[in-house]
Every structure is written in C-alpha cells, then in structure tokens.
Design brief:
266 residues; M1 Pyruvate Kinase, Domain 3; globular
Length: 266
C-alpha cells in the first residue's frame, strides 16, 4: 500500500467552514492559517460546536490571499465580507448579532488555538475509513461524514483505518514523513459531542455515537490498539509537527512513510 495525501483542509476561523487546498505551508505546530482565528465569549470560552450548534448554521468562505472572510446564514441571507484584521470590530459586531452574545475574535499563529495545542498539529484520516463509516450512515452524503470529523489531511491508497498504524499502544508513537515534512503520530483522536451534530444545521443525532461505535467494532483492523485507548469512539490520528519543520510544504500527492516507533514523553 502507498498512502498519499488526497485532501488538505484548514479551518482559518476555528469551528467554521474549511478551506480545501492543493498545498499548505507548515507554520508553528500547525498548518499556516489553520485555526489562526477563534471566536470567544466574555468568559473567554470558545464559540464552537461543542458549545452551540449555531456555528453550523453560519456559512464561511475565504480569500486568504487578501485575508478576507465571507459570511452568510445557511438558511438564507446576504453575504457579508470582512478583512480579518482591518475589519475586526465590524466582524465581531456581525458575529455578536448572529450568536446573540458578545463575541471577540482572537488571532494566534503559533498553533495555540488548535483543539489540543502543540500535541496535535494536524489530524490524519484515510478516505477508506470515512467510506467504511459512511456505510452505517448511508442516508447522508460522504461529505457529511467528512465534515463531522474536520480532519486536516486525508489519505488515499490504503485500507480503512490504516492510519491507526501511525500510533502504537498508549505511550508509543511513530515518526513519519509526509513529503518533506517530518511529524510524529501521537494518538487516536477521541471524539466529543461535535460529530453527532449535523454539520450544516447543528441538530444533534442522538443515535450517532452508538452507531459509530457499532461500525468501528465491526471493522476493527486485526492487531488494532484502539481499545487500549479506552473505547471505540475514536477517529483520525493526532500528529505533532516539530517547530523545525516550519516553512516546509505539504502537497496533495505527497507520500506518507513510517520511519520508526518511539516512546512518547509523558
């Protein structure tokens, strides 16, 4: 099997829609522009899908060359455009009106707004894994499943859940090279209450977790260490990118190679 990148996605504003790229520059412990911005409330908590399904109801697209975001309600309405730096207060006012509470937009280009800062620079999943899971949720489009898990890198050329070879038992990771970029597979990603939410409406499917775990149990690869991580409610692999890789590029078509295993520091 020859695992290669088939998709790269970044999320310039944490919790909102992704941008699909053919290539992405590595920043500090993250891909450049990935989760560079985040919305927070007056109590310094993120506005994300863990907190409210309203984020799923907001459509976002970007012109990153010009640092511009275009926002509109999915239910219908005009598109409003904002420069992410120069129009910061106007953008905050728009978000406050949409969410019905005070909102501040914060910026950080050091990977510190990732879900697991520094410990998970990008998440990796295979297209085959998404298709395997999609069999349980065939009433939805494959893209619906993809959007629920918000992976940074998608692989083709491998079997379902092959990406779990990028970690060993708890405490053991894998040094890997993707194109010219070296990273470390750290752990499977434990999922939260985000995947059960419809990515376009925010409505929660109360059967989702049970059905996902049923699917994972039926398709668990031989020799899998997943149960050693506590349960089957995991998908995608957390990987760490050292700061030494800053400035390198990941591209669609890059091959992923496992170098060796290593003991992870506590």
């Amino acid at each position: 099997m020859k695992p290669v990148i088939s998709r790269i996605r970044i999320y310039p504003i944490k919790a909102l829609d992704p941008v699909e790229l053919q290539e992405a520059e590595v920043g500090i412990h993250s891909l450049r522009h990935d989760r560079e911005f985040a919305m927070i409330t007056h109590d310094q908590r993120f506005i994300n899908s863990k907190r409210t399904g309203r984020v799923n109801e907001l459509r976002a697209s970007y012109d990153l060359t010009n640092y511009t975001v275009h926002l509109s309600p999915r239910a219908g309405g005009s598109v409003e455009s904002f420069h992410l730096i120069e129009d910061k207060r106007k953008l905050e006012m728009y978000l406050e009106d949409f969410f019905g509470e005070p909102v501040s937009l914060i910026q950080n280009n050091k990977g510190e707004l990732m879900d697991i800062p520094t410990a998970s620079s990008v998440t990796i999943v295979s297209e085959a894994s998404l298709k395997s899971l999609h069999q349980e949720f065939s009433d939805r489009a494959l893209e619906d499943v993809r959007l629920r898990f918000r992976a940074s890198i998608e692989l083709t050329g491998v079997d379902a859940y092959w990406e779990e070879n990028l970690v060993g038992e708890p405490g053991v990771g894998m040094r890997i090279r993707v194109g010219d970029v070296e990273m470390i597979g750290v752990s499977p990603r434990a999922r939260c209450n985000v995947p059960p939410r419809d990515p376009l409406t925010g409505i929660t499917d109360k059967t989702f977790v049970k059905r996902m775990m049923k699917s994972r149990a039926a398709s668990l690869p031989q020799g899998s260490h997943l149960l050693e991580y506590g349960n089957l409610y995991h998908l995608t692999i957390n990987t760490y990118i050292p700061e030494t890789q800053k400035g390198k590029w990941l591209r669609v078509g890059d091959e992923l190679k496992i170098i060796n295993s290593l003991k992870l520091e506590p």
